[in-house]
Amino acid sequence: MSLARNVFVQSSLTFGSRILGFIREAVIFAKLGAGPLTDAYLTAQQFPNLFRRLLAEGAFAQAFVPLYTRSQAEEGDEVATRMATETLSMLFTVTIILSLIAQFCMPWIMMVLQAGYRNDPDIFNLSILLTQITMPYLAGMALSALFAGVLNAAGRFVLSAAAPTLMNICLLIAAFSFNEPRMVALACSVATLIAGILQAAVLWFGARNQGVHLKFRLPRITPAVKDVAKIAVPGALAASATQINIIVSSSIASFEAGAKGWLASADRFYQLPLGIVGVAVGVAILPRLSRAMSKVGSSEDTHRTLDEGISLAMALTLPAAVALAIIPFFLIDALFGRGQFDASDSTLAASALIHYAWGVPAFVLVKVLAPAFFARHDTKRPMQFAVVSVLVNTVLGAGAFFWLRGQGEYGFPALAAATSFAAWLNVSMLWLTLIKRGDYKPSGLLISRMLRVFVSCGILGGFLYFANDYKNLTQTYLWESQILALIATVAVGGILYGIAALVTGAVSLREIRNAMRRSAT
Fold first, then answer.
1. How many CA atoms lie within 13 A of 141 on its CB side?
2. Residue 219: Cβ within 10 Å count
3. Mean pLDDT (10-residue bins), the chain, 521 residues
4. CA distance 466 to 51
5. What long-range pairs does 250-254 form, CB within 8 A, spacing at least 24?
6. Which residues form the signal peptide (predicted)?
């Protein structure tokens, strides 16, 4: 399949899952609102969200797939399957041990994650309980990531992209089953654990259908396991910089009641282009880069693949960033502004979303550039850059947060701004290193394409600015429905951007046709 088609398949399924995720979050926020109880629930979701994005959404796969692919090509399917089986057994054992340790250490862990609630025993203890319930999700995600890596190496992206839908379904069932807020939080935490088990089972079945029969064995530290760990562990850490920055920001936000809810609602919007575009392009581009870099004289193929990946990612991401920056309140209030989550909550969440918006291109570019390192089995350099970005995010975010609090202002928007700044710093380090090593240099065609994307985004931005001013008028023609007004605005804006992109040459009809059909490449 072509890169464009692989991205199209991955993105389409991820888009469906993310839309269902918006519905899920709208229901949960409507029942919980933004406050201490929501902060406790969101704290319990931090580990599942981190491990899902760290493992299932490409980070582990980006490190595992090159090794698995190389083993298949050089030593055959049998040796590759044995390597995967040994990795599976060790990975499962390690994650179970980590989960058990976390259960016992949760009160001390919560002293970091919920530092702002140390003097509120009710919320603090509830945070401990809910997180203990969700923590074993780690084991399910670890298994899911390995099975998904096996499927992706075979060019099968459908099941791994569709599996996260199970999480949304489980949480929706739990949220609709209760009305009392505390029971909703408890039920959704249990549903998270159940979803992790179901996802692992479905992906295991998919790998088995591909003829890859993975079994659990007594864990042993074999040479294959050492090779995977040496590359996968720093690789996973490298690809998780943005997610770790979110954990850090959320921990600091615990000193401001309700801030976790406002940040989380804004987070859902920028995670949409990150999951649909960034993860999809990163997962689809890695096998091609691995094959290209394994050949002698592969620089042309490598440069062309990265050009194509960056061009495609930015053409799809920049218009989303423009929308998040120009109509943040419209977006949040239309989707989450109901029940316990009122207009003041939407206003505060929008102030964070504006700062996430200018970081969106960077969040996506990290996913596109990191595979160029992973394909060469270099995960230490991206890990070092990730550590730098986390440190910068922590220092800037904490400093600005407490300074604003001291001025009598809300501090949480500074946490969003620090996360975006850290992401751009990470991108700069990755990009400059690739250029310095001679692994990549943007072509004139890419630069020309980006200028056309900017022009198209400018047209979109002008329309959205106008539409935001007249959103109330639009709403009156759509049965006073704010959500219908938003859908209409986004639909017209998307069509307008699409036309502008075709007219300016930011995208071509040939690329669209290639995305819709199978290719031998």
1. 25
2. 16
3. 56 70 84 85 81 58 70 77 84 86 90 86 93 89 81 69 84 91 94 92 85 78 78 67 75 86 86 70 62 59 80 89 96 87 91 95 88 77 87 92 93 94 94 87 88 95 95 90 93 94 81 49 38
4. 40
5. 250/42, 250/43, 250/46, 250/113, 251/112, 251/113, 251/114, 251/115, 252/397, 252/398, 252/401, 252/415, 253/116, 253/401, 253/412, 253/415, 254/39, 254/43, 254/113, 254/114, 254/115, 254/116, 254/117
6. none
